[in-house]
Every structure is written in C-alpha cells, then in structure tokens.
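Researcher: Good morning. I'm working through a list of sequences from a screen, and I'd like to move beyond sequence-only analysis. For each chain I'm collecting a predicted structure so we can compare shapes side by side. This is the next one on the list. No need for commentary yet; just the structure.
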Amino acid sequence: VQLQASGGGLVQAGGSLRLSCTAFGRTLSGYDMAWFRQAPGKEREFAAVMHWKGGNTYYADSVKGRFTISRDNSLNTAFLQMNSLKPEDTGVYYCAASPTGSRYYSSETTYGSWGQGTQVTVSS
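Model: Good morning. Structure tokens for this chain:
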C-alpha cells in the first residue's frame, strides 16, 4: 500500500497540529497504522499505533496524553492529533502500515509500507 503523509508545519510551543496519512492503491482495512518520528541527529522512534483488530491504541511515553491516533476507514486515512506541542516534538513524522496482528508494533521492521514524511517544527 502506498502512503502519503501531510499536515506538518511550524507551530509555537503549546499549539496543535493534525497529521494525515492517506493510502493509495488499496484500502487500509486489515492494516495496523502507526506514526514514527525522527528528530534532527537522532534515530527514528515510535510515536503511536492503532491496531486494525479492536482499534487498540498504544503510545510512546513521550507523547502519551498529548497525541491521539485515529483513522477514518471511509477516507482511507489515518490521523495523528498533536496537542500541547513541545520543541522536542520537532522532527520528520512518518506514517507506516503493517498487516494486522504484530505485537512488535513499536519496531520499524514490523512495517512494510511507509509514507514520505512530513516536517513538524515547534518553536519555543
């Protein structure tokens, strides 16, 4: 499945952004959807996932309580609502998809489909 991420931008600390990840070529039905991020000079890290089966969500401790992952299957799109943004949230955000069921949801290797990334910059 091909993914396209969008919605990044420049925001002041404390502000909000909503990222979108739209699938092309096939439906997102049956796929777990995740967001990863990569800060400048750092490795890419897991941020959030929503499982297809049951809709369970899991978050990295660093974003828990501030970020919310969701999906609209009728739009073939997943979202990441980011509130109370901090400068340390700055980075490139990537969406990813994996056939449902893996317990290793925080590992990059679980995901075979990736979006191109969208830049999020939070100013202090």
